[in-house]
Amino acid sequence: MDTARRGVPHGTRLAALALGALLLGSPAQADPDNYTQIERGRYLATVGDCIACHNGNQGSPLAGGRGIETPFGTIMSANITPDDETGIGRWTADDFYRAMHEGKRPYGTRLYPAFPYTYYTRVTREDSDAIFAFLRSLEPVRNPVDRSTLPFPLDIRLAMLGWNMLFFTPQTFEPDPGRSAEFNRGAYLVEGLGHCGACHTPMNMLGASRDSVALQGNQIQSWFAPNITGDPRTGIGGWSVEEIVEYLRTGRNARSTASGPMAEVVGYSTSLMTEADLRAIAVYLRERGSAGPAAPAPLAADDSRMRAGEAVYVDNCMACHTRAGVGVDRMFPRLAGSQVVQQEDPTTLLRVVLTGVRGASTAEAPTAPAMPAFGWRLSDEQVAAVVTYIRNTWGNAAPAVAADAAQSLRDTVRDQPAD
């Protein structure tokens, strides 16, 4: 379950996680007569994972200035502290709701969908007002942010009028009367405030979500956010509600470990959410369901690529992931039957082999397991071979990976730090 937010080195990210936990963590005990709305807003801002994008390391996790990579260029996140000149100090609650609901800044200036208003549009006015009250309670931080970093003509915000006409209609969340309250709460969190589809839903050439394949996985910023539908092979249909909750709360379970950008989501957001909300998300994702494509036939064990990959695996991977691919429970991820391993797109698996990765660290699971980078010692052909082997062994089945794919990703991430 990976997302894709990049731009902050791991050490800096750990410091930001700690600071964010102090600011956005469990609602503080406060005078309910004065602070109920603010503390509710604090929790909702945690659910919405505001810090992940608006953290610019300017003395506040929400002062903005973090580069958000998109297929069209890098957009700098806004300062959402109540500074009058560089933040939202002069905004009203109506202004904030309009931004959330319609994607408009004060005076009608259009926002880019890098700010996921296409999901936030479902957030209730009550919740929007609570988040705004929380943001207004913060210490103002002066941090001018260049909000015009896209190349011409994409920097012309008026073009968003046409984009919105094609791909966006403001709406409100409508619960399904035929479903449980828990399911509907999960739907509100996943499809609205939690905006899971912003990373996990494939996009078209113009950057709009393809709703017909919602949550079925998406390549974004040199990672692949995997399928999180109820498909039993490539989605999470084989996961129990308890396993999903454990993953979101601690960053790991017996099947997988949250790493890469998903480690931020867990650290900043889901690990700080209530058990009830985590269960609602799990129930919704499992009941939502999706019939994925049939599994391809696995490559034959005597295929030359499989033999080469097996040799690389035995030499470099077996010590942690074991000969049977079962890993070490809640420490080194299981590869046999892995949802991530069997995605149609191998980008994430290629990336962790090339650059290494570090798992999430949470209060309940503070040790962040790490995998070293192997790109320095393995050729593109070897990387492709071992990934192909892993994707077609122990009952797994997925397309073979070409050396060109490993080379292309190596070139893309060459200068990026390991997570």
From TrEMBL:
Keywords: Cell membrane, Electron transport, Heme, Iron, Membrane, Metal-binding, Repeat, Respiratory chain, Signal, Transport. Its cofactor is heme c. Heme c 2 binds at residues 196, 199-200. It comes from the Bacteria. One of its GO terms (molecular function) is oxidoreductase activity, acting on CH-OH group of donors. Binds 3 heme c groups covalently per subunit. The keyword Membrane applies. InterPro entries: Cyt_c-like_dom, Cyt_c-like_dom_sf, Cyt_C_IC, Cytochrome_c-type_DH, Membr-bd_ADH_cyt_c. Residues 36-139, 181-289, 304-394 form the Cytochrome c domain. Residues 1-30 form the signal peptide. It is found in: Cell membrane. GO terms for cellular component: plasma membrane. Its main location: membrane. Heme c 3 binds at residues 317, 320-321. Heme c 1 binds at residues 50, 53-54. This is Cytochrome c. It comes from Roseomonas acroporae.
